[in-house]
Design brief:
The complex is a heterodimer. Helices cover 54% and strands 5% of the residues of chain A. Chain A is mainly alpha-helical. Chain A has two domains: 286 residues, no CATH class; 198 residues. In chain A, strands 3-4-5-9-8 form a five-stranded mixed beta sheet, covered by helices on one side. In chain A, strands 1-2 form a two-stranded antiparallel ribbon. In chain A, strands 6-7 form a two-stranded antiparallel sheet. The longest helix of chain A is centred in the first third of the chain and has 34 residues. The radius of gyration of chain A is 32 Å and the shape is elongated. The N and C termini of chain A lie far apart (127 Å). Chain B has ten helices and no strands. The radius of gyration of chain B is 20 Å and the shape is globular. Classes of the chains: A mainly alpha, B mainly alpha.
């Protein structure tokens, strides 16, 4: 007696199972045997040395960190990724097994794409780990705002491009010498390609290393008061993805890469990739610098991004509050410490501002790569004055706290001059001051013309503010010393009584206490 | 008949016969060919030509300083890769003259690279001049040879190319403090800096000594 036969379980066709399993197995094999895995520590070490330390040294603002990351991380990964990809691709040629593998079931192109995919997977894993570390640390340090994803996305799309370039070179020229040469060439192209960019219409800003406008780059004023514009990033992603497709498609074109349909597909992918990359380059050439320091590409621009970001300013507890964008919260104590003495003196005086508020500065493209920063002095708005924080911030581009403070004192000088000095005849020009006014301004700010000139580096850089302070050794300087010696309360009381006459120029030096 | 046939032999055959007459010369030639020295020389010449061509471009201050380093790295990587032996253990067991051949090949290639790159910079704005080319190429070659000894000649490019990023960054910090002033990153130091020269020389000597005595690491897998 035998048991009745079990009902037959329908099985999928054998070739269907193989089609699903084999690529996965091949990818797993490639992942396990991939040189990029061993190059990851090198890539991370290079990132730590070249990128991480510099990124973490810049002020903890999302715009600065994310835009610097786009530039640095990709450059740091270029050498290991291109080298590893070229090394993996030249493997068959170096070992002399190309003919042997040519008779396997999988088409050569599919085999090559699997090798490229494995290299890219490891490279992307390392890249994303580095992004995660920087973003997590920034999230813990930043006082306001959220991550900017576009700079990270551009890099993530450019990593497969680097891998594809290396892989194509290793496949087409399978020699030991290919690897260092293509690595050095890729580094040269990537690092030096940005030097060709000139102005906001440059096609070269399509380089994935370019984060924002050339010669502005990561600047505190960019993407703080206005949204980060993704226009250039979208073009860069399009370029990198298109070029990756074109390079990989190119590998499928030679005879022996696969069947007729596979080679036709490769040709279509190559053409489509080239078209996408070419379109992206053309789009980058239509860019223009917007007043907020970012590149606008009309065909990709969303007008909704032009709206300013809403925020609740952070204000100091001074006699006249100083309010800054919350992204700059870390600098409010420094600003307050410098401006507090003058604001205490000015509080309650006729014409004194109700509040001192930070505002965005504007950018304009100059000839070549030059950028003009536009800020029309201290503008009065609804009883408050708006000012711009000195750029760069401490820690950024070698700026020191002392240098930052000294430039803030110029802001204090402007605020005091706006109250004590006379209105300039030309609209928008700084206040003007007579000898008595100069003496009082100098006494309140504790500044003299030589000090200001020295701090700014040279007398030429003193600019229009030099006229607000008495010349050294002049009678006005002596009067300033005399006035400064008075107690703060006495100075304030005198100013309350005599400020209208002082502003009108009816007070002489001799009349100053 | 035989004599006539010999005189009519093609030049390559004649060269081979000449080499057979001089065993030492033949040994050197076989070593050179096995190390792909002719290809390496052609590549070094290409690096020098590319450096010369780059002088016609417009570079900013960073670019002008960093540019020579890129081509120096290319040449040094190529020299290090020539340490690869196609014979491995068998060659080591039989080759009494092998250390001398390795030494001579490496020294000759290094000298050729320095000469080619210095010649490419003649009349151009070669940052640092010939002295810096000498120091950088020697140091980078030493780094590549050390990598060839430790990782295998196939992966000897990893050291010089990774060092390229370190060097370019150090040059960048000349404008953006804090400046990296360690002599171990010699490309960022002035051409006549003694510390940088000593470091580069030490690395070159160490790499050359290890490759001469032990050769590049044989790796069954890449």
């Amino acid at each position: 007696m035998t048991a009745p036969p079990a009902p037959a379980v329908p099985r999928p066709p054998h070739h269907a199972v193989r089609a699903k399993v084999v690529p996965g197995r091949l990818l797993r094999l490639e992942l396990r045997r991939n040189t990029m895995l061993w190059m990851l520590p090198v890539a991370i070490l290079l990132f730590w040395y070249n990128g991480y330390r510099e990124i973490m040294a810049v002020p903890p603002m999302w715009n600065l960190r994310a835009m610097t990351l786009q530039n640095r991380l990709l450059l740091d990964f270029a050498i290991p990724v291109v080298g590893a990809a070229a090394w993996m691709a030249s493997r068959e040629g170096r070992r002399g097994v190309a003919d042997l593998l040519g008779i396997t079931a999988r088409p050569r192109w599919a085999r090559q794409l699997t090798g490229w995919a494995a290299t890219t997977c490891w490279a992307l894993l390392g890249y994303l780990c580095c992004v995660a570390v920087v973003y997590v640390l920034t999230a813990r340090q930043a006082s306001w705002g959220g991550p900017l994803w576009w700079p990270a996305v551009v890099g993530a799309v450019a990593v497969p491009l680097l891998s594809a370039v290396g892989f194509a070179a290793g496949t087409l020229f399978p020699s030991r010498f290919t690897v260092p040469l293509v690595t050095v060439a890729a580094f040269f192209g990537l690092a030096f390609g940005t030097q060709a960019a000139s102005g906001d219409h440059s096609y070269w800003q399509i380089s994935p290393l370019t984060s924002g406008a050339v010669d502005i780059g990561a600047d505190p004023g960019v993407a703080t008061f206005y949204h980060y514009l993704p226009d250039l990033s979208i073009a860069q992603v399009m370029f990198a993805a298109g070029l990756t497709a074109a390079v990989l498609g190119l590998l499928g074109l030679p005879a022996g890469s696969g069947g007729r349909w596979l080679r036709r597909s490769a040709a279509v992918i190559t053409v489509a990739g080239l078209a996408a990359a070419g379109t992206a380059v053309a789009l980058a050439g239509t860019g223009r610098l917007d007043p907020h320091g970012m590149i606008v590409i009309p065909a990709l621009h969303d007008a909704a991004n032009d709206q300013p970001i809403r925020y609740t300013p952070v204000c100091s507890h001074t006699a006249i509050p100083v309010c800054v964008n919350p992204a700059y919260t870390a600098y409010l104590p420094a600003v307050t410490a410098v401006l507090r003495p003058v604001l205490t003196e000015l509080a309650g005086l006729p014409g004194a501002p109700r509040q001192v508020t930070q505002a965005a500065q504007a950018y304009a493209q100059g000839p070549g790569n030059s950028i003009n920063l536009i800020f029309h002095g201290l503008a009065a708005r609804d009883g408050s004055v708006v000012f711009s924080l000195p750029d760069p911030l401490p820690g950024d581009q070698g700026q020191t706290s002392a240098g930052f403070d000294s430039r803030l004192k110029t802001t204090g000088l402007q605020i005091v001059a706006g109250v004590i000095g006379s209105q300039s005849r030309a609209a928008g020009s700084p206040a003007v001051a007579g000898p008595a006014q100069q003496a009082v301004i100098s006494a309140l700010t504790r500044l003299t013309a030589p000090q200001l000139a020295f701090r700014n580096g040279s007398a030429e850089q003193l600019g229009p503010y030099g006229r607000l302070l008495p010349a050294p050794g002049s009678p006005a300087a002596a009067a300033a010393t005399r006035f400064a010696a008075l107690p703060a309360a006495a100075q304030h009381a005198w100013l309350v009584q005599h400020l209208p006459a002082l502003r009108a120029g009816r007070i002489s030096l001799a009349q100053l206490p | 008949m035989t004599a006539g046939a010999t005189s009519a032999a093609p030049p390559a055959e004649a060269t081979r016969q000449d080499l057979r007459a001089w065993p030492a010369l033949r040994l050197a030639w076989l070593h050179i060919v096995s190390r792909r020295v002719p290809v390496a020389l052609a590549t070094i010449a290409a690096c020098a030509a590319a450096l010369r061509g780059a002088f016609y471009g417009h570079w900013d201050s960073y670019g002008a300083l960093q540019l020579p380093l890129i081509f120096e790295v290319g040449a040094a990587s190529v020299i290090a890769i020539t340490a690869a032996s196609p014979f491995g253990e068998a060659e080591r067991a039989t080759g009494r003259w092998l250390p001398y051949l390795r030494l001579g090949t490496t020294l000759a290639l290094t000298a050729a690279a320095i000469g080619a790159l210095a010649a490419a910079g003649t009349g151009g704005h070669l940052a640092g001049g010939t002295v810096e080319v000498l120091r950088n190429v020697a140091g980078l070659t030493g780094l590549g040879l050390l990598c060839a000894f430790m990782l295998g000649a196939g992966l000897a490019w990893t050291g010089p190319t990774a060092y390229l990023l370190a060097g370019t960054y150090a040059l960048y910090t000349d404008w953006h403090p804090p400046t990296l002033s360690t002599p171990w990153i010699w490309p960022a130091r002035p051409p006549l800096d003694r510390g940088a020269a000593i470091c580069a020389a030490l690395v070159f000597t160490a790499g050359l000594a290890l490759i001469t005595i032990r050769g590049a690491r044989d790796s069954g897998r890449d």
